[in-house]
Amino acid sequence: MAQQDRLQQMREWIKTTPEISLDQLMEEYRISRDTARRDLIQLEREGKIIRVKNGLIRVGTNTTVQYDRRTEQPEKNRIAKRAVRYVQPDQTIILDAASTVARMTVHLPAQPIQIITNALAVVEQLEARPEIDLYVTGGKWDRHARSLVGIKTADDILNYQVDRVFLGACGLTEQGIFAENLEEAIVKKAMIRSSAEVIVLADHTKFEKRFLHKVCDLNQIDILITDERPTEQWQKWLQEADILLETAEEE
User: Fold this and answer.
1) What is the CATH classification number for the domain harbouring 157?
2) pLDDT digits (tens, 9 = 90+) for 5-60
3) Largest CA distance in the chain
4) In sequence order, what DSSP letters do the residues of 71-86 get, joined into one string?
5) Coil, strand, or helix at residue 50?
6) Is residue 32, in this structure, part of any structural domain at all?
7) How many C-alpha atoms does 146 have within 13 Å on its Cβ side?
8) Domain boundary, last residue among 32, 61, 90
9) Same domain, yes or no, for 203 and 113?
10) Last residue of a domain, one of 15, 38, 61
């Protein structure tokens, strides 16, 4: 199908569907992920949609509601609850802009901690928590991820030395973790450099997904928290990289 014909069908689709994922587009039109992204860029230029991670939302849709809906997925909630066990009183931690990481804020106990973040969702959840000292980076505003990104954000983060960083991952392969865009990758790399321990939160859908921008090798991760036990091959890779695997499976 020619791109113009496909775009016209998408224009009709989004009239009745406020949120569509990249996977849905790929399945419906039998196209690659890169082709689907190029189509979304064109629709965004037309003012029809707003691109978000792994899909689109229709212009006029409440983006905060859509973001909250993503964080409320049961598997993300289980992973976030497990991750909170690694937050100790009086620690300094970094929370990145991943939706699973943002869900941790709901489960944080009332204890004194210092949190550095580039994510609006984290700020919104924690601004009324007096026991938490909250530090927010500068940087370029990314309306799709609702976060601050880029060189300025990375520079701000490198001024800190923290106990732990909690990172999301767009993709995870034997080669390491990946981000969808360069600015996001730069920020994640800075977070890793600034942290004594790296904890990655990734549900099972992120395994075997590779993107253009690599963030780090597997051996730079200390702990991986996911929602389903990975394959034996993946368990072998994690063991070889000396990564502690935590599985927050459904009870």
Assistant:
1) 3.40.50.1360
2) 999 998 888 888 778 888 889 988 989 988 888 888 888 888 777 776 677 777 65
3) 57
4) HT-HHHHHHHHHHHTT
5) strand
6) yes
7) 18
8) 61
9) yes
10) 61
